[in-house]
Amino acid sequence: MTSRAALPSSRLRSSGGTPVVGTVTRGTTNPNRLRRMDRWIAAAHGRELRRAGRAVAVDLGYGAAPWTAVELLARLRSVAPHARVVGVEIEPARVAAAKPYERDGLAFRHGGFEVPLPGRPHLIRAANVLRQYDEAEVAAVWERLCTRLAPATRTSRGGLLVEGTCDEIGRRHVWVALGPEGPRTVTFATRLGSLERPSDLAERLPKALIHRNVPGEPVHAFLRDFDRAWAAAAPYASYGARQRWIRTVRDLTRDWPVTDGPARWRQGEVTVAWGALAPRG
Q1: Of 50, 66, 181, 214, which is most buried with the most CB atoms under 10 A?
Q2: Is residue 80 within a helix (H) or strand (E), and if so which, with residue range?
Q3: How many C-alpha atoms does 233 have within 13 Å on its Cβ side?
């Protein structure tokens, strides 16, 4: 990947004296907010985490309360029993408030996009963090975080960065998955009972895409086709929103590189190759 802008560095320093990269965000958080992202990570990356043995996952920018890091540990251990989670926050007061929740496999550290760990993590989850940055800063953040991931080997694709945005209670969520080599896929996930049309997810596009939802950009064309397929699948609504969604996504596969299958579609998800939705230019 090629960086388009330098990252801002806060004036804070870690306990080791290393400059902390990034700026303090609002820190909004709620219990169970990231359940859809966590569920997808466990399914898509669980095998890699098991292979790693004592895999390390980072909850980057967990916010004003440590709930998402606590939940991530429980969900990862359901597929990788020896996984460990480190919550990383740029605001020292948030780290201090989280310390009482530390236990075996769960720790909290002060830091930012430099990811202050001695080794390379097998997972970095950054949810609702870049939403508060400029679009021009995204590529540099992605590049920096991808260089911190565990590298690919002959038997492994390497670590995974999952970066995206969701609403306040986690009903609608869109994220990008990246490996050491860069972006791989975009996943759209929703509570189907609350969805009027697929383009409702546009307001939760990650920063790299949200300003590209305009005519002439691939993500705009994708959401347009998604809505059309949803309308065409209206007769399936009598069987429930899930059946309508499955039919909609199946029709989408004719023109778009959908990378998952019915098992994930049933969860109210669809994953598309990044190259099909990447911003032009």
Answers
A1: 66
A2: none
A3: 25
Amino acid in position 108: F
Adjacent-strand bridge partners of 85: 57, 106
β-strand pairing of 9-13 with 269-273: unpaired
**CB–CB of 127/165 below 8 Å?**
yes
**Side-chain half-sphere of 44: how many Cα atoms within 13 Å?**
29
Torsion from C-alpha of 67, 38, 124, 138, nearest 10 degrees: -100
**Residues 6+ away with beta carbon under 8 Å from 65:** 29, 97, 98
* Cα atoms in the Cβ-side hemisphere of radius 13 Å centred on 183: 26
* pLDDT tens per residue, range 247-279: 999 999 999 999 999 999 999 999 999 999 999
Please give the full DSSP string across 198-235, using - where no structure is assigned.
Answer: GGGGGGG--HHHHTT-STTSHHHHHHHHHHHHHHHTGG
Q: What are phi and psi of 193, to 5 degrees?
A: -65, -15
CB of 128 within 8 A of CB of 165? yes
Contacts of 74 (CB under 8 A, 6+ apart): none
Nearest to 80 by CA among 105, 115, 111: 105
